[in-house]
């Protein structure tokens, strides 16, 4: 059977999540800001229509915000993650196989059902079901390869007449759309690569699809050769049933205000370690290398600059937050210097091992708590039910270093105290 893929993508995901529990904002321009309320990272279609650009500092659009009543929100990652999980669970009930590609995108494998259903009608059903169950609007692109499905999804968003669904299984429709799409819109073709292709006269997706794959491989790479084949309807990228294990976990933040006290920095580092260790356990991994870094601001000429980092290889792989907190504290002591105004810090966990792969020696076994795994499981289970209910003493309150989130929306789906009340 010929492969058939569908790419389902939520429209303006972050902004749509903010509108979900605010029907009064259904037609209002909405922007979502980055950490510390710095720059615009998401826009509703109404905000895009006002000309607000992605990445623009919020202080530069204050006049537009006031003039057009733009609603501003801080990033609410707990809300976005929960809505994403609900969308993906709904898709898993609608398709034989699902690959979660990002927080707001998923590929569906329709190979086994493509001949039994009308694909456009299936896409419309997906849209209607997610709209009814969750309240989110999605677009669906369907094609014989994942790269073509990406382009089909882009067209579904761009052209209202498609009703949010584009089926590119017909070769004639493929060529017609490819001729309309700039080569820069092709999945995997970045800005620099696009400039090189344009210099060769390859300006549209159809131009790229018309190239000899072997010539493209010699001039560029095997990756671009695969893209050319995918644009011609040859499936080279299968659905990933298993998400690859991460090679490292990084947790870092810019502070809401400058940190000058060691105790406050220690609280921040401890909180980052606790969060990273939770992710590590979720990945069913243990790490043996931990790194800590701190730095001052980059743009204030009146502040002296300082940055430093340090790493420590542990005696044995672990996912125990207590062990990692101890190691991070020792590293912070080694690189900390008084007299500076620190703007950012972070930690990295790396050198991963599957649980049980590395067997500790006789001496190491004496220092590993036999109840470590059970304790961490209990902590994670409680915190999954209510975030931050159980924490380690070194994490402190976080008031001195927390991010600026002055426009944060409630945790509508993740906090019992912030649930909507219907009278």
UniProtKB/TrEMBL annotation:
EC number(s) recorded for this UniProt protein: 2.7.7.7
UniProt keyword Nucleotidyltransferase present: yes
PANTHER family: DNA REPAIR POLYMERASE UMUC / TRANSFERASE FAMILY MEMBER (PTHR11076), PROTEIN UMUC (PTHR11076:SF34)
Gene designation: umuC
CDD domains (UniProt xref): PolY_Pol_V_umuC
Protein name: Translesion error-prone DNA polymerase V subunit UmuC
Name of one Pfam family that matches: DUF4113
Stated family: Belongs to the DNA polymerase type-Y family.
GO molecular function: DNA-directed DNA polymerase activity
Domain of life: Bacteria
Domain UmuC residues, every copy: 5-190
Keyword annotations: DNA damage, DNA repair, Nucleotidyltransferase, SOS mutagenesis, SOS response, Transferase
């Amino acid at each position: 059977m010929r492969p058939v893929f569908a790419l389902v993508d939520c429209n303006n995901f972050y902004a749509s999540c903010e509108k979900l529990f605010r029907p009064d904002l259904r037609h209002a321009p909405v922007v979502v800001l980055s950490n510390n309320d710095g720059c615009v990272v998401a826009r509703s279609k109404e905000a895009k229509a006002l000309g607000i650009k992605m990445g623009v500092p919020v202080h530069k659009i204050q006049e537009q915000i006031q003039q057009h009543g733009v609603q501003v929100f801080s990033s609410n990652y707990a809300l976005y993650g929960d809505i994403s999980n609900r969308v993906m669970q709904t898709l898993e009930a609608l398709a034989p196989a699902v690959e979660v590609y990002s927080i707001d995108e998923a590929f569906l494998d329709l190979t086994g059902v493509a001949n039994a259903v009308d694909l456009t009608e299936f896409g419309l059903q997906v849209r209607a079901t997610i709209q009814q169950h969750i309240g989110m609007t999605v677009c669906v692109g369907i094609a014989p390869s994942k790269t073509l499905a990406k382009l089909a999804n882009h067209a579904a968003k761009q052209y209202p007449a498609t009703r949010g669904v584009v089926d590119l299984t017909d070769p004639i429709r493929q060529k017609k759309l490819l001729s309309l799409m700039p080569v820069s819109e092709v999945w995997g073709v970045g800005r620099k690569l696009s400039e090189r292709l344009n210099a060769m006269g390859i300006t549209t997706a159809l131009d790229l699809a018309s190239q000899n794959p072997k010539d493209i491989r010699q001039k560029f790479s095997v990756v671009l050769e695969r893209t050319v084949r995918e644009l011609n309807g040859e499936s080279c990228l299968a659905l990933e049933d298993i998400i690859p294990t991460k090679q490292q976990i990084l947790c870092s933040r810019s502070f809401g205000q400058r940190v000058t006290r060691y105790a406050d920095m220690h609280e921040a580092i401890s909180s980052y370690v606790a969060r990273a260790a939770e992710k590590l356990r979720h990945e069913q991994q243990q790490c043996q290398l931990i790194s800590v870094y701190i730095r001052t601001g980059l743009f204030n000429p009146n502040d002296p600059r300082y940055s430093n980092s340090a790493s420590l290889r542990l005696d044995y792989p672990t996912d125990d937050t207590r062990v990692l907190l101890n190691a991070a504290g020792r590293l912070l002591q080694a690189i900390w210097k008084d007299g500076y105004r620190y703007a950012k810090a972070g930690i990295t966990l790396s050198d991963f091992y599957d649980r049980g792969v590395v067997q500790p020696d006789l001496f190491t076994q004496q220092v590993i708590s036999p109840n470590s795994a059970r304790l961490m499981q209990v902590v994670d289970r409680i915190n999954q039910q209510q975030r931050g209910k159980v924490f380690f003493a070194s994490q402190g309150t976080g008031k001195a270093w927390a991010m600026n989130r002055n426009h944060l929306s409630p945790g509508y789906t993740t906090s019992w105290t912030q649930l909507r009340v219907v009278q």
